[in-house]
TrEMBL record:
<dbReference type="InterPro" id="IPR042184">
    <property type="entry name" value="YqeY/Aim41_N"/>
</dbReference>
<dbReference type="GO" id="GO:0016884">
    <property type="term" value="F:carbon-nitrogen ligase activity, with glutamine as amido-N-donor"/>
</dbReference>
<dbReference type="InterPro" id="IPR023168">
    <property type="entry name" value="GatB_Yqey_C_2"/>
</dbReference>
<dbReference type="InterPro" id="IPR019004">
    <property type="entry name" value="YqeY/Aim41"/>
</dbReference>
<dbReference type="InterPro" id="IPR003789">
    <property type="entry name" value="Asn/Gln_tRNA_amidoTrase-B-like"/>
</dbReference>
<protein>
    <recommendedName>
        <fullName>GatB Yqey domain-containing protein</fullName>
    </recommendedName>
</protein>
<dbReference type="Pfam" id="PF09424">
    <property type="entry name" value="YqeY"/>
</dbReference>
Length: 147
């Protein structure tokens, strides 16, 4: 079952259940996936679908940070609910220990020895962890291992 099929089924379920939060979030995800399909001109691969979902998740997490720093905590619960809904469609996230072991392996593979190799390591490790780990976590693990 493709992501769009899954989103369509969940859209119908949310409509029947009168679940407005889920309905609006699923509509937004469906629109993002459809727009990406139009942009690239073909049906999305599973990697491309994960990219779209990751981008949507990151936007919401960044918004939570912005609202929190701007003292608009009244808007945070709705965004946290959206984050929870978006995460349902993403692959299971790796633990920090799993990320650390993958980063250590990648550092050995590329022969990185110092902070100057940060970009090389990130470029090699992010495709391996696409959709499975937050970029901020990967960034901090790479920095800590290279220092």
């Amino acid at each position: 079952m493709s992501l769009l099929d899954s989103l369509n089924n969940d859209l119908k379920t949310a409509m029947k259940a009168h679940d407005k939060e889920t309905l609006s979030t699923v509509r937004m995800l469906k629109a993002a996936v459809t727009n990406e399909q139009i942009k690239v001109g073909h049906t999305l691969t599973s990697d491309e679908e994960v990219s779209v979902l990751s981008r949507e998740l990151k936007q919401r997490k960044d918004s939570v940070d912005e609202f929190t720093s701007a003292d608009r905590t009244d808007l945070v619960p709705a965004l946290e609910k959206e984050i929870e809904i978006v995460e349902r469609y993403l692959p299971e996230q790796l633990s920090e220990d799993d990320v650390k072991s993958i980063v250590e392996e990648t550092i050995r593979q590329v022969g990185a020895t110092s902070k100057a190799d940060f970009g090389k390591v990130m470029g090699a490790v992010m495709p391996k962890l696409k959709g499975q780990a937050d970029g901020k976590i990967v960034n901090s693990v790479v920095k800590s291992l290279l220092s």
